[in-house]
Write a structure and sequence with these properties.
disordered N terminus; about 130 residues; globular; eight-stranded antiparallel beta barrel; alpha+beta
Length: about 130
């Protein structure tokens, strides 16, 4: 009887360990869900902000493009971190402006947050264009 109980315990422990390794939680799971290409939802004609995010552990990197009202357009570099359920990104445009985005995944395909340079955050929503 003891031998069977030991065998069942060993199989259970191995099974739980395998499940834990295959199912990340917390910031790592959020990181997996963030990976992809995102586009800001805007009603300003000609304006856009699009970025692709890559995540390693809780570090976010990537690149994107932007166009602002008035015709200025260019590229941007994306850096940031995942801190708990919060995504904190810096979007450094090639014109010298750096925006900060503090956001959360509202759904698998929607990122909601605030975008700002130094103050006065503006509410923004990004929609997923591509899951990579």
């Amino acid at each position: 009887m003891t031998r069977i109980r030991c065998l069942i315990t060993a199989v259970t422990v191995i099974g739980l360990g395998a499940c834990g390794a295959a199912s990340p939680t917390g910031p790592q799971k959020l990181g997996q869900e963030l990976v992809g290409t995102w586009s800001e939802n805007t009603s300003v004609p000609g304006a856009f902000l699009i970025f692709s995010a890559v995540v390693s552990d809780t570090t976010v990197t990537g690149a994107g493009t932007y166009s602002v009202d008035g015709g200025t357009a260019g590229n941007l570099a994306l850096t940031g971190v995942i801190n708990g359920s919060e995504i904190q990104l810096q979007l450094a445009q090639d014109n010298g402006t750096t925006y900060h985005l503090n956001a959360r995944l509202a759904s698998p395909n929607e990122l909601d947050g605030s975008l700002f340079t130094t103050s006065d955050p503006v509410p923004v929503t990004f929609s997923r264009l591509l899951r990579e």
